[in-house]
Amino acid sequence: NAGVTQTPKFQVLKTGQSMTLQCAQDMNHEYMSWYRQDPGMGLRLIHYSVGAGITDQGEVPNGYNVSRSTTEDFPLRLLSAAPSQTSVYFCASSPGLAGGNEQFFGPGTRLTVL
Amino acid sequence: GENVEQHPSTLSVQEGDSAVIKCTYSDSASNYFPWYKQELGKRPQLIIDIRSNVGEKKDQRIAVTLNKTAKHFSLHITETQPEDSAVYFCVAGYSSASKIIFGSGTRLSIRP
After folding, report:
1. Tens digit of each residue's pLDDT (9 = 90 or more) over B42-78
2. Bridge partner list, B74
3. Are A44 and A59 in contact (CB under 8 A)?
4. What is the pLDDT of residues A11-61, one digit of tens each?
5. Cα distance between residue B8 and residue B18, in whole Å
6. A93 pairs with which residues across the strands?
C-alpha cells in the first residue's frame, strides 16, 4: 500500500492564482481531512470528509474548497491564492471518525504564495 | 468546543535523561488521547495513544499517563536518544467526533 499520497511536493503561486492540491489514499478509509501547518503553530483543520459526497468545514476553511467524489481522492482547491496561504499542507485519512482513530498523514505540500 | 493546551513549547534534555510533555484538555467527554511525532521535514506519525479506560500505557521507552479527573495527560520518554529529537503533538478527542484539535506542539531537542 502506498498509504496517503500528495502532489505536488512543492508549489509557488502568484497572488490571485488558483490551484488544486491532490490527495489520494489506498487504505479504503472513509474519513479524510486537510490541515495546514504554519511555523510555530500546530496543525489546523481546513476541511474534512466523513465519506464520499460529504464534506464539512474545519477551523480555517476560508479561501479553500473541497469535494469528495470517490473514497480514494480528496482534492483541496485554492480559489484565489493569497500570501497568508503560504504554508505546509497535510492530507490525512483514518479508518473511522477522527475523534477516536489514528490519523495517517501524507508527506505534505509546501506552498509559497508571492 | 475542545481546547488543548500543551507545555512546554520547547524542551532540551541531555541524552540519556527523561523528557516529559504535558497537555490539558477542556472537554470532559474526551476519551481518546493520541500523541504524534513529527521529525524535521517529515509528516506527523502516531507514536502512542491511550483511551480513557486506562490510566497508563507503555511502549518501550515511551509512556503516556492520563488523569481524567484533572483533565490532563502526559508523554514520558526515558533514556532519550538523538532520534527522539522532533516536534511532538498531543490530541484530545472523543470517538463520536468528526474532527480533532491538535496541541500547539513541543519541540524536543536531545543534547549529546
Report:
1. 999 999 999 988 899 999 999 999 999 999 999 999 9
2. B22, B65
3. yes
4. 999 999 999 999 999 999 999 999 999 987 789 999 999 999 999 999 999
5. 14
6. A32, A104
Residue identified by cell 497572488 is A15
How much is the CA Rg of chain B, to the nearest whole Å?
Answer: 13
Write the DSSP string, B31-76: -EEEEEEE-TTS--EEEEEEETT-SEEEETTEEEEEETTTTEEEEE
Residue in B6, B93, B103 nearest the CB of A98 = B93
> Which three cell numbers mark A98?
477522527
**CA distance, residue A32 to nearest chain B CA (Å):** 10
- Give me the phi and psi of A74, to 5 degrees please: -150, 80
Nearest by CB: A100 against B32, B44, B45: B32
Angle at B25 between CA B66 and CA B33, to 5 degrees: 45
The span from the first CA to the last CA of chain A, in angstroms, equals 36
Cis-peptide into B8, omega within 30 deg: yes
Contact between B43 and A105 using a beta-carbon 8 Å cutoff: yes
